[in-house]
């Protein structure tokens, strides 16, 4: 558990110095919001292909340590290329390879952690909260540092922290390589035939698409509204800091009210945050409602991984986790980042948050309907 906690702490510390600031990084280099959205959408497009393939490979060779090490080394090395490439062709080529390895590490690590946690008798949230803590620390510190020194070196910081992630991965227990009797096509077919899982994934995509848009375009929202950009890091830190106790609360609530009900509540909380940012244009209120963002994310991150794991059959755990990530963050990111950049350019940041509010309310209602349908099906089968 200590090794997994250390991994999550360092992995999300690396994420905190990079992902919240990529939109500003490209914006400061002179790209329009629409172009930035298209670049981030390309990252999401690559993840749709990369995550399921890497997940199926992991399920076949049963060695997540090896795959995580490859991702932890390759992604930051490729990311350094953005420091030296200016043309769009170079950015596109780098984006394809960078996003392939960067996007695959998270769901594979989650599939390993949730499986170990279930066997050892403790919750996934008790491990994941260390990532929330480091993300809070990282975003707060980098918000101050980047505001003072600029955003040009974000990939250098990412590389340095990823080096420490590699050290921790070396302490993971090695897994004996075993071949699955099911082919990769067979694995994919089993997933597609799992209708309850696919319905859950599509419903989750609406909610996670809004969260992805908020993370990527919140810095541009600050820029458009004329807020002091030094507060951007604090906004992400506030959300991440409240996640730490909320992961523990999510575990208790999930057992008390049910996983689907908790996800319904999370989507509604996201909606309240986005509606407040649509109605008001005040930096203090914007910072305060980031608490809602952190609460909702903790409810989702700890619960959704366990829901996905409950749908998994033997040899499909990492496959389902990576497909869930590919559709919610990948496909949702493509649609969201593309539309997000266009909406900001044409209608403004505040209108974008009205769209996010509608997405979350729709997701909350669908979670309620899905839970009712699932309960009905269980009653019939019983």
TrEMBL record:
The keyword RNA-binding does not apply. It is a multi-pass membrane protein. One of its GO terms (molecular function) is transmembrane transporter activity. The chain crosses the membrane at residues 7-26, 38-55, 67-85, 91-108, 129-149, 155-175, 196-218, 230-250, 262-281, 287-311, 323-344, 350-369. It is found in: Cell membrane. GO terms for cellular component: plasma membrane. It holds the Pfam family MFS_1_like. Keywords: Membrane, Transmembrane, Transmembrane helix, Transport. Its main location: membrane. Residues 1-375 form the Major facilitator superfamily (MFS) profile domain. Belongs to the major facilitator superfamily. MFSD6 family. This is MFS transporter. It comes from Paenibacillus anaericanus.
């Amino acid at each position: 558990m200590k090794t997994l906690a250390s991994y999550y702490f360092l992995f999300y510390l690396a994420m905190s110095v990079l992902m919240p600031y990529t939109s500003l990084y490209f914006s400061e280099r002179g790209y329009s919001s629409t172009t930035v959205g298209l670049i981030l959408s390309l990252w999401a497009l690559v993840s749709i292909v990369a995550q399921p393939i890497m997940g199926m490979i992991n399920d076949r060779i049963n060695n997540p340590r090896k795959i995580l090490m490859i991702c932890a080394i390759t992604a930051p090395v490729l990311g350094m290329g953005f420091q030296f490439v200016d043309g769009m062709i170079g950015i596109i080529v780098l984006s394809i390879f960078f996003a392939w390895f960067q996007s695959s590490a998270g769901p594979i690590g989650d599939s390993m952690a949730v499986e170990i946690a279930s066997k050892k008798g403790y919750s996934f949230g008790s491990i994941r909260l260390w990532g929330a803590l480091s993300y809070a620390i990282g975003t707060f510190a980098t918000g101050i540092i980047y505001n003072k020194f600029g955003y040009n070196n974000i990939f250098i910081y990412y590389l340095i922290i990823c080096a420490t992630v590699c050290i921790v991965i070396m302490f993971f227990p090695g897994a004996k390589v075993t071949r699955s009797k099911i082919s990769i096509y067979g694995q994919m077919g089993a997933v597609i035939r799992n209708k309850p899982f696919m319905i859950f994934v599509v419903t989750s995509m609406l909610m996670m698409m809004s969260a992805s848009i908020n993370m990527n375009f919140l810095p541009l929202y600050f820029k458009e509204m004329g807020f002091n950009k030094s507060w951007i890091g604090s906004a992400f830190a506030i959300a991440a800091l409240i996640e730490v106790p909320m992961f523990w609360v999510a575990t208790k609530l999930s057992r008390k009210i049910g996983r689907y009900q908790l996800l319904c509540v999370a989507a509604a909380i996201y909606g309240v945050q986005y509606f407040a940012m649509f109605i008001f244009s005040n930096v203090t209120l914007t910072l305060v409602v980031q608490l809602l963002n952190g609460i909702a994310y903790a409810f989702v991150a700890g619960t959704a991984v366990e829901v996905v794991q409950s749908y998994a059959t033997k040899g499909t755990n990492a496959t389902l986790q990576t497909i869930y990530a590919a559709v919610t963050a990948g496909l949702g990111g493509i649609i969201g980042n593309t539309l997000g950049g266009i909406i900001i350019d044409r209608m403004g940041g505040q209108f974008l948050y009205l769209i996010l509010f509608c997405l979350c309310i729709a997701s909350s209602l669908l979670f309620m309907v899905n839970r009712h349908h699932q309960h009905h099906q269980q009653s019939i089968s019983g």
